[in-house]
Amino acid sequence: MDKLEMRHTLLAAKARKKLTWEEIGKSIGMSPVWVASACYGMNSATPDVAKKICKVLEAEPEVATALEAFPTKAWDEAIPQDPLIYRLYEVVGVYGDTLKDVIQEKFGDGIMSAIDFSMEVDKIEDPKGDRVLLTLNGKFLPYKAW
Amino acid sequence: MDKLEMRHTLLAAKARKKLTWEEIGKSIGMSPVWVASACYGMNSATPDVAKKICKVLEAEPEVATALEAFPTKAWDEAIPQDPLIYRLYEVVGVYGDTLKDVIQEKFGDGIMSAIDFSMEVDKIEDPKGDRVLLTLNGKFLPYKAW
Amino acid sequence: MDKLEMRHTLLAAKARKKLTWEEIGKSIGMSPVWVASACYGMNSATPDVAKKICKVLEAEPEVATALEAFPTKAWDEAIPQDPLIYRLYEVVGVYGDTLKDVIQEKFGDGIMSAIDFSMEVDKIEDPKGDRVLLTLNGKFLPYKAW
Amino acid sequence: MDKLEMRHTLLAAKARKKLTWEEIGKSIGMSPVWVASACYGMNSATPDVAKKICKVLEAEPEVATALEAFPTKAWDEAIPQDPLIYRLYEVVGVYGDTLKDVIQEKFGDGIMSAIDFSMEVDKIEDPKGDRVLLTLNGKFLPYKAW
Amino acid sequence: MDKLEMRHTLLAAKARKKLTWEEIGKSIGMSPVWVASACYGMNSATPDVAKKICKVLEAEPEVATALEAFPTKAWDEAIPQDPLIYRLYEVVGVYGDTLKDVIQEKFGDGIMSAIDFSMEVDKIEDPKGDRVLLTLNGKFLPYKAW
Amino acid sequence: MDKLEMRHTLLAAKARKKLTWEEIGKSIGMSPVWVASACYGMNSATPDVAKKICKVLEAEPEVATALEAFPTKAWDEAIPQDPLIYRLYEVVGVYGDTLKDVIQEKFGDGIMSAIDFSMEVDKIEDPKGDRVLLTLNGKFLPYKAW
Amino acid sequence: MDKLEMRHTLLAAKARKKLTWEEIGKSIGMSPVWVASACYGMNSATPDVAKKICKVLEAEPEVATALEAFPTKAWDEAIPQDPLIYRLYEVVGVYGDTLKDVIQEKFGDGIMSAIDFSMEVDKIEDPKGDRVLLTLNGKFLPYKAW
Amino acid sequence: MDKLEMRHTLLAAKARKKLTWEEIGKSIGMSPVWVASACYGMNSATPDVAKKICKVLEAEPEVATALEAFPTKAWDEAIPQDPLIYRLYEVVGVYGDTLKDVIQEKFGDGIMSAIDFSMEVDKIEDPKGDRVLLTLNGKFLPYKAW
Amino acid sequence: MDKLEMRHTLLAAKARKKLTWEEIGKSIGMSPVWVASACYGMNSATPDVAKKICKVLEAEPEVATALEAFPTKAWDEAIPQDPLIYRLYEVVGVYGDTLKDVIQEKFGDGIMSAIDFSMEVDKIEDPKGDRVLLTLNGKFLPYKAW
Amino acid sequence: MDKLEMRHTLLAAKARKKLTWEEIGKSIGMSPVWVASACYGMNSATPDVAKKICKVLEAEPEVATALEAFPTKAWDEAIPQDPLIYRLYEVVGVYGDTLKDVIQEKFGDGIMSAIDFSMEVDKIEDPKGDRVLLTLNGKFLPYKAW
């Protein structure tokens, strides 16, 4: 079973059981964003976590094997088209130089890792319109001279 | 004076006066990321704020006029190459579908605005390596049927 | 049932029943353009509206579920090729800077939302050749400093 | 004088004289969007109109010659990056098939001309947020068999 | 039956019956280039003509329905690769500016329509090598100020 | 003097002397389209013809040398953007396969040369709107087995 | 049977019968490179030659029909990736301007035809490493003024 | 002096002295194609050869230094546009798979080097039209398992 | 059996038998990176080695035939997306000019072959985080004048 | 002084003083590849190292400031064209999946860092042709679940 089939299986099970990523995350002790990314095939799970995901979603053991596999990460469109995802791309385009300058002023020459990294989505309720709070947390890696 | 010349003038002044975005932001009462984005030419300032920026950086009045102008936002590379900015692009590519699903599960069908939007960079000190905390805060805009 | 299958099912039903978007829109109390976009899989319907669409087009309940799903919006060609769609792309290319200037002169720095948005197609009869009147109506979103 | 120099000259004059496209359009009897497009170098003016524009903006006769020249229309980015212009591109991408279907249902096989064409921008004031009303008006051209 | 299946059906029938586009065109009173384009799925036929094409090629009624459908025109390669088609693309690239200047000198600012348009292929026999005569005939559409 | 400078010089002279391509072509005994293409730098002239062009347009001898040089042909946009030129590109895209089939049915396997090639632009006056007649004339080159 | 199926059939037969292009070419009196190109679907064969190829490779008559068909030539990657083919592309990139200059110095303004064209591959044995000798032979086509 | 300036200097000198690549090559004992490629900046010359080229073309010593520099090879268009160079690209596209198969059948798995490589242009006079004979000679490099 | 099917077969067998590339390489006397590349279909094996691979992985004889076939090498994305592979691409982008200069300073004008080439992956254990040691070993090929 | 000007200054000084990267590296106690990358503007130096580089190459203090600046890394061609650099790109394309599999088998799910990273170029003398030994050394970064 490859990652694509695994993803279809898990998303179908989640819909059938009417569970949210929030609930699945809570019941297995992981963050909802990470659980979603693993079910979408963009992260690998440890055997232990894979088993838990399969238990919550009542999936076959071969789904757990697929969850443990190390993914080859890829995406369809170099420039995303879906409006929600495009807005994030636009933020990177518009504010990329700004963020580079502010981060490197604070940390020195280096990058924010996208590997030693986590993410969180929160909802700020507001009568003028709720707001999405997206938090990225990555280790700073300094360039080293050699 | 166009935005490009304005940017060169302001970055040179900032270097000459050895100020940080943090300090400039504080002294004019705006966030450091926003101040940087305005000086990079990616946001327009109100006349009042433009004047304050010019005062802190000892710039000519025509720089203030340039800060007030509404920018045409553009970036050089559809797929960014600088490693710090690429990592952000990679996050959007790898986690785009995941974020869409988690956000829409929480908010319904719609997007996180990149216009009614703010951003913040924080440093989490950690003996195993400091971490960058990047917070995006955007209004949720629901699609409406008509 | 995914959006693609839903679309094929609904377009086939519409052809079989010889209904126009105008008629379907009228019978369910929505605009014809919106109804078409939902059947093409580019917008999600509320449960209530989804049921009505399925009733008019005599479709199975799983089609209603597909109509309710939040779509991942994508299109085939970055530069459209079909002549009708290309002409719209050409308008954006030729008049993009012009529209930006005229809109921002009237509203300030910001954008016209494509989310809090509606559209209408009308026919102006004219002996020298009928004319298409295409109306776009989007909320103005101002950039905010922070 | 080429179209680019003409554009810089006219936009600078407009800023200096603090005129809006609305006001310029009114004073010469043309639509504000069309006047802007001609000054941006995307349409040619008749000698008479070119002279009027130059009179309002106090420009030299060679600017009038440049306004009369037939432009070679081009734009920088196949996929626009400025957020205001991108939103229009997104509308074409997301709703292109829908518009094609709705228009051709009303008019038969053919296209909406982008040449025998006009456009208008209006403001709808609304306490919940003003709205942009963008109207495109193009002749319908039917395909003919031969 | 979609346009692709229709095309396979009609081309196979044409090969089986050993008919040329010339002959099919003559027998139904249309130009050979137009008939070919309709059978390739790039133009729609009136019910009457669709029926005639099906009669000549002994095709089922559903093929006629497919011939009447309004096509979504698309092509595989932005820059064509087949040598015969590439040569035409090369002509547009090499002589595009020249043609624009010569046509607009004769007609004013505007375009040659590709919609209100017809085309013809003729053979000029020549002992030094036969020549292809390709004639494009399109309505001139002037830009109008508004 | 390179081809670009030559082009600017010749187009300026032509405007100054208020000559059309038609008139220049007639006075030197060549076709107007070819003369335009040579002045645009897309074809080389024989010494004799180069001298004649320079005489008509009162240009310096070094312009004649530039006219004689063999051009490196190139164009800016793989997919043209100017509406007049795009319409020609669209014709190649929409009708490419059709033309290939009709030409090869008449001539056998091979191509229409874009080198041993000429072109003509004519105006057909018509009360319902004048028409552009564009004629391409290229030697047929058969593929040979070896 | 289309060209792709024909190609699979012929390459499989060639492998099964352990024949080389050299041997097939010799037995039917054609060059090995041409025979390979025809079996790969990049050239059409005369009925006579098609029959001979099918005889040598013991293929069905419908394969002969496919060999006679005029191919639509296309290739997968605008910039080839296979190292052997990339090296040829690199030669065109690195030496393109050089070859243009040397050829046009010898022949005048024009091109080397890729249609009235043949090619040959030879092996030069050499103790320091064998060498590939690739010979391209194309008719020179002069541009003609008109 | 960089390669670009060197190229302009050498091509201007060659034109002024009315020398051909053939003549320059002969007088310094190198092939005309190689000499052209070195003067175009696509190959480096040994100090001895660089001096000879400068002597023949009466160039300054700094030109010799530029000829000795190791070039960074690059070309403008991934897909060439000049018709002469495009035809060579087309040959690689159309016959790439064929050549790979024929070469590897003769030599085993490996490539023809574009580094340990030479090239030659010859003219075959023919009353039906002269022919260009282009010969590529590259060392065969076998892949090695390790 | 083509290379793709061969790859699926061999990777499945490797997983079933729980073997590492290290172990397979050792048992057949080849390097683990090379064995992996051959099983991925990116190198051809000699009959002898192919048989050994099939023996270790208990694969059918037709898999051995597929291992011996000369591959057409290709990859999916011109700019890789998987983070591990992208980092290697980034190294080539960031350090390409540097490496060219350092290598050519040491070796003269020429390249490092990617054909007469081998590669090795080693692990350097380190309490602060293990390190990957990637060694590329390629023959230097000097450009030769001719 | 920006990185580009700095690079020109330092490369010119290095040529004038006839120093190699090897010698410069040795005299300041850093690796030759790293020194080259810093002088090419692809890495930042500490104030101390920047001063040493300027001393060896007799450069002005403002060059030292430029060496200390944090670079925005970018490269010209997504797919490199210079043959030496392309060969490295080809290695990533051909062996990318192989390396991913071999590295992750040894280290688990994660990447080799291109930031906490160093590189070395060595020469292996060999009578059959010298070999380039390129060593990449990067910290392994494991993905972490969160």
Task: Explain the overall architecture.
The structure is a homodecamer of 146-residue chains. Helix content of chain A is 50%, strand content 18%. By secondary structure, the first copy, chain A, is an alpha+beta fold. Chain A has two domains: 3-68, lambda repressor-like DNA-binding domains (434 Repressor (Amino-terminal Domain)); 83-142, Cyanate lyase, C-terminal domain (Cyanate Lyase, Chain: A, domain 2), CATH 3.30.1160.10. In chain A, strands 1-2 form a two-stranded antiparallel ribbon. In chain A, strand 1 and strand 2 (131-142) form a beta hairpin. The longest helix of chain A has 25 residues, at 83-107. The radius of gyration of chain A is 18 Å and the shape is globular. The relative contact order of chain A is 0.11. The model of chain A has no long low-confidence stretch (mean pLDDT 97). Chains C and D meet through helix 3, helix 6, strand 1 and strand 2 of C and helix 3, helix 6, strand 1 and strand 2 of D.
Short description:
The first copy, chain A, is of the alpha+beta class.
What is the number of beta strands of chain A? 2
Outline the low-pLDDT stretches of chain A: none
Oligomer: homodecamer
Radius of gyration of chain A: 18 Å
Q: In the CATH hierarchy, what is the class of the largest domain in chain A?
A: Mainly Alpha
CATH architecture group name of the largest domain in chain A: Orthogonal Bundle
Q: Distance between the terminal alpha carbons of chain A, to the nearest Å?
A: 44 Å
Q: Number of helical runs of chain A? A: 6
Percent of residues in helices of chain A comes to: 40-55%
Largest interface: C-D, 64 and 63 residues
- Structural class per helix/strand content of chain A? alpha+beta
Largest sheet of chain A: 2 strands, antiparallel
Could you say how many structural domains of chain A there are in total? 2
Shape of chain A: globular
Average pLDDT across residues of chain A?
A: 97
CATH fold call of the largest domain in chain A: 434 Repressor (Amino-terminal Domain)
Strand content of chain A: 15-25%
SSE sequence of chain A, one letter per element: HHHHHHEE
Biggest sheet strand order of chain A reads 1-2
**CATH superfamily caption of the largest domain in chain A:** lambda repressor-like DNA-binding domains
Pfam families (chains A, B, C, D, E, F, G, H, I, J): Cyanate_lyase, CYNS_N
GO molecular function, one term (chains A, B, C, D, E, F, G, H, I, J): cyanate hydratase activity
Keywords (chains A, B, C, D, E, F, G, H, I, J): Lyase
Family (chains A, B, C, D, E, F, G, H, I, J): Belongs to the cyanase family.
